[in-house]
Amino acid sequence: MTSERMARMALSCVTEPANPLVARAIAEFGAVDVWEGLLAQDGLMSKRARELKLKEVVSECGSLGIRFVIPGDDEWPAQVEQLGCCEPVHKLCGAPIGLWLRGGGDLAKLCARSVSIVGARAATAYGERAAGELACDLSDAGYAIISGGAFGIDAAAHRGCLAGRTPTIAVLAGGVNRAYPEAHASLFTRIAKDGVLVSELPPSEHPTKVRFLGRNRLIAALAIGTVIVEGAVRSGAKNSITWATSLGRITMAVPGPVTSAMSYSPHQLIRNAEAVLVTNSLEVLELVCPGAPDVPRPAVQRRATDDLSENELRVYEFIPGRGSRSAEELAMRAGLNIPVCLSVLHSLCDKELVMLNPADQWQLKPASHVAMADHLENAGLRLL
Amino acid sequence: MTSERMARMALSCVTEPANPLVARAIAEFGAVDVWEGLLAQDGLMSKRARELKLKEVVSECGSLGIRFVIPGDDEWPAQVEQLGCCEPVHKLCGAPIGLWLRGGGDLAKLCARSVSIVGARAATAYGERAAGELACDLSDAGYAIISGGAFGIDAAAHRGCLAGRTPTIAVLAGGVNRAYPEAHASLFTRIAKDGVLVSELPPSEHPTKVRFLGRNRLIAALAIGTVIVEGAVRSGAKNSITWATSLGRITMAVPGPVTSAMSYSPHQLIRNAEAVLVTNSLEVLELVCPGAPDVPRPAVQRRATDDLSENELRVYEFIPGRGSRSAEELAMRAGLNIPVCLSVLHSLCDKELVMLNPADQWQLKPASHVAMADHLENAGLRLL
User: Fold this and answer.
1) Do A255 and B256 touch (CB under 8 A)?
2) Together in a domain, B153 and B273
3) Closest A-chain CA to B51
4) E strands along B150-195, which residues?
5) What part of B 163-222 touches A (C-beta under 8 Å)?
6) Which domain range does residue B365 map to?
């Protein structure tokens, strides 16, 4: 009598991930019946099933520190089951049969507050910087960063998150004991310390293109929202955004120079309203965590003229940069009657912006030239 | 008996632009009655009216080569009259009383196919390059570029347009005989050759902040759409976008590095769906000229594996980068039955991607290693 866990583990060992038929069968009949049915049948998959040495897999997992989680486990991220009822992408779909995990983090807890960051492998320095800063700030804000462990944006996102307060999650297209790319072996070790390495594939399996496409759907499904940082015309990262859209997740994109081919995909996604433009972690939080405080506008420099009334501003602007004018002339140019203009001039005087000279003409107060220059500069003017 | 033209010219000389009261009075009673009424009244504006020496203005215009156009003239851009019935911005509104023009271009004809480009004076090299290229490409596509003649983005847009096939239009906040900024005197001369310098203000008047705000509404009103290239938090360029929105014109924004403070305004406008992201002239044309051909996607490099069927791709991916595998093993891994797998292998053989070696095992065809590397690279893999 096979247990649900053993049946799912076995099925995970002999089937390819994101196989809609297998997923639907398990949803309908349960993993145990599907597994026992498979053993009883002919055909290649059944042959593989009968040849499977599950005990060896279990003991290998024990020695490698790999655990296998299934629906119902505390660590199971229930949101991935939405993959069972969303639109297929590239004919792939279905909830994972189970997940192979390695690392000290709790997958379900970390994913509950998480953002996926995806992008080009051949990223630019700008893209890696943007991804790293975004990941680090979100990590400090208590959000785990999920990515694919690849070169470029993925690595920058993982490293940025490792620099912050919250662990990071790498979703792999091969076994979680297999470093792909090999150059990231030490990065994966650091991720596994407090975070998690996740895969639908049993230990030692290697990635294939189809497995990458299936993996992308998990990156989108595990997180609250997905951000694409860079992607050329032909971008695998866009595939994760497609999955996120299909799952009704929040989709975001970081813009870049229009002269950069690597920003093509983000720009097109924003242009077609398939993703929301985001420039920093606060804008991401605003979307993934509706309760979050509003994004503060960058501080704007106050100007001496900011607090002037409309009439004060009008009169002030007709006072020449050099020389002086009579109250009557100023009144006429500003379109005010003389009493009003005089009271305005006196309040400008109190604010030390203008002064009455011995010739009974109004002119800028020497110190005020700076304020005026500053003010006119803001208005697009220079002292004439 | 004053003519409509003389009345409008006179009113333009003694009133500030974008004054809603004056505009409404002219719309209701006609310029002649408003002018004669003004002469009969008391108050400062009437005083200025009575002191106006219109003959001198007319002769000055003659000697400076400045013309004054009003509704009904061939060169009058009728679309600016929509300013008479749109939402006020900063309490300013109203159609212009008339327009003072200098230059060899026909304002109405040029504006019929035109795009406004606005942005920061303190622009970055990136912003000036983006504005210049956009302007030049649109000019070559037959569109006149409208801008404000200021430093930074404005100047880059005018210069880009001058480098193209179509003249450019500068809308000024002072008299069209007065170069503001002075450093742009020669630029304005080049613009005036085949293009037009436009202002609501009579000759020799100097700009004020209010006049700049009024001028911005003309930049938005004259063109089919307005593009903002760069703008900091506190950006005058955003004011033109506000006018364009209020007029129901097409609003567009060019993104930039998220690390650049100068891209703050474009990013916020895109993020809040107040402007559409555009990265080049074709995307602008797609919006301002619905008949235009679709934007071509950048050419994508073809790969040897692009034309493989799903089964061919599946089998191909299970052939190791080094070494070889039997047909049966490949069939099992690919989840195909052996006859199907063999036919797939033979078609891959015909496509010179794989070969059968003397040991009756299937391996990559030497030349195919390149295609495989290329293919796997695209799939995010490297040869294992």
Assistant:
1) yes
2) yes
3) A332
4) 168-172
5) 173, 180-181, 206-210, 212
6) 304-378
Secondary structure class of B267 (helix, strand, coil): helix
Of the residues B288, B316, B345, the one at which a domain ends: B288
Q: How far apart are CA B336 and CA A66, in angstroms?
A: 30
For B234, which of A16, A129, A300 is closest by C-beta distance? Answer: A300
The residues near A180 (Cβ < 8 Å, ≥ 6 apart) are: A149, A172, A173, A174, A206, A207, B381, B384
Is B375 an 8 Å CB contact of chain A?
A: yes
pLDDT tens track for A95-106: 999 999 999 999
| pLDDT tens per residue across span B62-80 | 999 999 999 999 999 999 9
Do A239 and A282 sit in the same domain of this protein? yes
**B274 touches A at CB < 8 Å:** no
Q: Which residues of B touch A327 (CB under 8 A)?
A: none
Q: Does one domain contain both B199 and B320?
A: no
* Same domain, residue pair B322 and B189: no
Say whether both A270 and A360 belong to one domain.
no
Contact between residue B138 and residue A368 where contact means Cβ atoms under 8 Å apart: no
| Alpha helices (runs of H) in A289-361, residue ranges in sequence order | 310-317, 327-334, 338-350
* ipTM of model: 0.77
This prediction has a pTM of 0.80
Within 13 Å and on the Cβ side, how many CA atoms surround A280?
A: 16
> Same domain for A187 and A331?
no
**Residue positions counted in chain A:** 384
Task: Examine residue A308 and state whether it is found in any structural domain, yes or no.
Answer: yes
Tokens in use for B328?
């049966």
Domain at A215, CATH number = 3.40.50.450
Token pair listed for A141: 């804000």
Q: What is the CATH number of the domain that holds A348?
A: 1.10.10.10
